[in-house]
Structure formats: C-alpha cells, structure tokens
Amino acid sequence: MKLHTVLITLALLIGFPAVSIAGITLTDERLPLFDIQGVITKSDLYDLEKAVEVMIKTSGPPYGSPYFRLNSEGGDVEVAIAIGRQLRRFQAQAITFDDGKCLSSCVFILAGAVRRSLSNSIGIHRPYLSSTDQRDYRTTQATQRKLSKLVKDYLEEMNVSPSLYDAMVVIPPEKVRLLSESELQRYGLLDVDPVQQELEDSAEARRYGLSKIDYLTRKSEMNATCVRYLNSGAIQSYVKCRDTAFRLKK
Predict the structure, then answer these.
(1) pLDDT, tens digit, 9 for 90 and up, residues 117-127
(2) Are 68 and 90 in contact (CB under 8 A)?
(3) Domains in the chain and their CATH numbers?
(4) Which residue, 26, 35, 29, 30, is CA-closest to 10?
(5) Which of 204, 244, 250, 212 lies closest to 226 in space, CA to CA?
(6) Please, where are the H alpha helices in 60-105?
(7) Does the reported pTM lie above 0.90?
C-alpha cells in the first residue's frame, strides 16, 4: 500500500506554522498535519481540541481538511473512539508512513477518518480494560459486553464493518494480527468512507455538468487511463488527463 502522491502535492500548496502541543501535535509547516504517537490516553482528547483550535486561529477558515499521521500501538479504547469521532467531525484524513504503525485501539482512530492513505502495519487484537481493579466473573463479563456494544455501534457509525470486532476478539490482547490489504478493504478501512465518496461524486458531477451515471462511467474510464500520471508524480498531467476525461465545462 503506497501513500497517494496527491498528499505530497497538498503539502506543497498549503501553509501552516508548526505548533507543538503535548501528545497530539500540529507538526507541519505546509499543511494541517497532526501527529498521534505513542500510547493513547485521556489527555489526548484535550490535546486534540487545543491543537485544532491553534490550527483554526492561525490559519482562519477555510482551513481545509486536517491530516492525522498515526504511529501508535494503541491505548484507551474509549478515548480512541472519542478521537475517531472528532476526526469524522473534522472530515479528517488519516495517514501512515513506511515506519508508522496503527495497532490495537489506534484502529478506531483510523476508522474515524473520511480518507485513509496507509503504507504499513495495521494490527488488531481483542479490546481490553486498562483497569486492574479486582472484579468477579459476572461483573467482568457485563463490562466486556458493554465494551463490545460500544465498539460495534461505533464501527457501524463510521461505516466500517462490525465484523472487524469479531476478528479482533479471537486475538488475545498480548498478541497482534496484522491486516492484509484485502482485509482492510473488506472491513472498510481503506480509501474513502462511502458516504464521503457519495458527497464528493455528487459535487464533481455537478461541477462537470454531468448526470451521476455519466459521471461514474467517465470516472471509471478516467481511473484506468490517468492513474499512471498520479503514480509517477506527474500531478499536472494527471489533472489535465482528468479534466479531459470529464470534459470540464468552462
């Protein structure tokens, strides 16, 4: 899985000052890029809110969709889900690089993004309670069932297959199973959220003055014809090829 070249182009076009805030950091001077690294804890929610506030105050609206670069081995499940919901609210994009990984509860943050560009290790295991308080079997089972409902409801809310949770629970928490590209595709963790894709396709069809079915037909042809420019980094050639395929109306 390779990081889309279009991300590099965006990095060159948008300007933002670098700001460092605790665990979640606005790190890039060229676009709204945040790093989420290390163990996910409750303080990260506060860090996220403060970092986005800085981005908005610094750039002013419209500030564009933020990017979140993930490199975490997981942490607090409920916090990861809350952060994922914030990413969805910001219409954010999640990325990993060659040395990055997104394991355990980090996958719930990944699920919240409307776009995902992944290049390395995405791994799962059974969600577990961080508390070591003494509990009996019945109480622990009730808590696990509550956690199961929380996770499945969240995945469905994010248009990710709830069967992802079923794959998680069979992996003991001390182990990690890396997901293949086909598995990521099957669970709905690759590329674009389907609702986001529907919004973008409708907007593009309006822009080119096309019906939806005509737009989708030309989009399929464009993807087959123009992708070679995108893969080689020839962005201007890709844009020209794309506009030709859709016959952009002036």
Answers:
(1) 877 789 999 99
(2) no
(3) 5-192 (3.90.226.10), 198-246 (no CATH)
(4) 30
(5) 244
(6) 77-89
(7) no
